[in-house]
Amino acid sequence: MRNDRRGSVLIIFALTLSTLILFSGVAIDLARVYIVRSRLQTSTDAAALLGAREEENTQMQSDATAIFMTNFNSNAPVGGANLMDATVSNISIQLDQKSGVVTVAATASVPTTFLRMFPGLPTSIPVTTTSTSQANSSNLELALVLDTTASMTFTDPSTGGTKLQALQKAVADLMNVLYGDKDTVPNLWVSVVPFITTINVGNGAMQTAWLKQQKSANDYRHNGGTQYSWSGCVEARIDGGSNDDETEISPIDHPFMPFYADDTYGLYTYKKNSSSSCSSSKTVYSNGICMGDNDWGAPASVNIKQNPALFAAGLQFGPNRGCPASILPLTASKSSVLNKVNALPTYYSGTVIGLGLQGGWFTLSPQWRAASGWGDTTLPHDYYTSSSSPVSLPVTKIAVLVSDGENVWGYVSSVIPGSLGQSLYMPYGRLSSENNPLHIPLGKNVVSNAVNELNDRMINVCSNMKEKNIKIYVVGLGVSSNKARNLLQTCSSGADYYYIESPTAADLDAAFLKVAHQISQLRLVR
To answer: In what order do the strands lie in the sheet with 522-524?
Structure first.
């Protein structure tokens, strides 16, 4: 007679099935706990980030709590409970006033679905996460390198305002992201570097000491005129065969030559009624002398002192032609930056982006600190080192370049006579057989040859800056050609640092906000 084992098999099956259900239930409930914990961590991260941004805001606690709940409840069923029916039992938001560190801790209770079916097992599982944050932007040196050529006065069809006005708004939005509603943030400094053909280092007593020669405008005048003073612009440092127009070298180690656009009065000697004539009857003085492109030395007896064709194009005159507003060195003050940017003038005179970037580098280079720079004994910081209070963190150095990407060696031969009209006076001189320090091939391709030379020098500046771990963001303003686009992309620190084409105010603002959020990422410390 065989033993009937069916009963024992059923018992074993029942026990096995119960075990399988238990383990399946544990797996499901643990998966729910994992999902809730991940969302809880995201929520405390968000609250800590906002708290660090609003550390001095009286509503910081309520704002941080609100952003926590928004993140925790996102994607919950409409009108339903929290994620996985979890409930938050505690949110703690603590601010360390000395360090500015915000710590957010939260606990959520996750109800079990299967474990509660078994006696003695929990009906809910507690989950706790903690996030600590402080602003990385509080350890930042930022140079705003801004194109202020005449094209910035062109109307933006999206707003009816100018490109310059759009730029000013975009900079204000960037500053608001970095500073919030504060005028200063610990260990955050910003410089403003306007450029056209050259840069303006300022014309105070310290900057005067940086000059190689103490020449005045009188030394650049051909005939008559009135004394002009130096506005602070400098020539490219290529004397003696050096390429210090591509380096960070201080003016103590390599002094500057003051920039004075030369006087062209009397150089174009064709008379109105001679066999050769001026380019038009409108470009001749009352004494029969043809107008040049920069006749700031014309005597008072001449009844017109400016070439009307160039004047109509927005070309300024005088020995400081092509000289932009002065550089604002690193400052901790948001209002100082905004005041500087909102007061920027524009001029027509050509464009040399490489020298603008070099000016930005000057404001970030430790070689320009103290006696060698603008007088600050601590700024700029050394490369790869830490700043002081409130927390010792590496100082990030960033340059943001805004330009249309077109280097332009000012060219005016269509409106003035003579071989000297091949170019405007630039920080490298004029393009002529008598003055060609860069050895640019002349002839019918002189303009493209000159631009290629400026492009090469610009890329060298970018490469040298990046070797010092300076991150270069580039915002293109209506880039008009693939050549210019490639130039800007090559200059930037990579694809994530180049914001292509901002033809309208809205595009420019969006690009600046992306830059702002990327460089102001907050540092999470868990």
So the answer is: 87-96, 101-111, 124-135, 522-524
Bond prior to 345 in cis (omega within 30° of 0): no
All domains of the chain in start order, with CATH: 6-122 (no CATH), 138-260+321-524 (3.40.50.410)
From CA 58, how far away is CA 517, in angstroms rounded? 23
Indicate the SS3 state at residue 32: helix
Using CA atoms, how far residue 432 sits from 16, 364, 411, in Å, is 96, 35, 12
State which residues of the chain have pLDDT below 70. Answer: 1-25, 55-56, 74-82, 97-100, 134-138, 157-158, 214-215, 217-218, 220-227, 268-282, 303-316, 385-393, 411-422, 432-434, 500-503, 505, 520-526
Cis peptide before 394, with omega less than 30 degrees from 0?
no
Residue 509 phi, psi dihedral angles, 5° rounding: -65, -45
Asked whether the beta carbons of 279 and 415 are under 8 A apart, the reply is yes
3-class secondary-structure state, position 219: helix
Which one-letter amino acid corresponds to residue 318? G
3-class DSSP assignment, residue 83: helix
Going by C-alpha positions, the residue among 477, 471, 519 that lies closest to residue 167 is 477
DSSP-assigned letters across all residues of 337-405: HHHHHHT---BBS-B-HHHHHHHHHHTT-GGGSGGGTTS-SS-SPPTT-B--SS---BPEEEEEEEE-S
Own/partner contacts of 164-167, CB < 8 Å, gap of 24 or more, are 164/344, 164/346, 165/505, 166/504, 166/505, 166/508, 166/509, 167/341, 167/402, 167/477, 167/508
| Residue among 457, 472, 468 nearest 518 (CA) | 472
DSSP-assigned states of every residue in 251-283: TTTSPBPBP-PPP-TTTS--BTTSSS--SSGGG
CB-side neighbour CA atoms (13 Å) of 167 = 32
C-alpha dist (Å) from residue 419 to 292, 388, 413: 11, 57, 8
The two beta strands, 188-195 and 522-524, are unpaired
Q: Spell 289-306 as b/e; 16+ CB within 10 A means b.
A: bbbbbbbbbbeeeeeebb
* Tokens read off for 345: 């003038």
The helix (run of H) or strand (run of E) holding residue 21 is helix 6-53
Q: Beta 101-111 vs 87-96: how paired, if at all? A: antiparallel
Q: How many whole angstroms separate alpha carbon 326 and alpha carbon 344?
A: 9
Percentages helix, strand, coil for the chain (3-state, rounded to 5) are 35, 20, 45
Q: What is the largest CA-CA distance in the chain?
A: 142
CB contact at 8 A, 184 and 334:
yes
d(CA 397, CA 384): 9
Ranges of beta strands (E only) in 391-520 are 396-403, 471-476, 498-499
Cβ-in-10-Å burial (0-12, 13-18, 19+) of 483 comes to middle
Please tell me the predicted confidence (pLDDT) of residue 418: 46
pTM (whole model) above 0.85: no
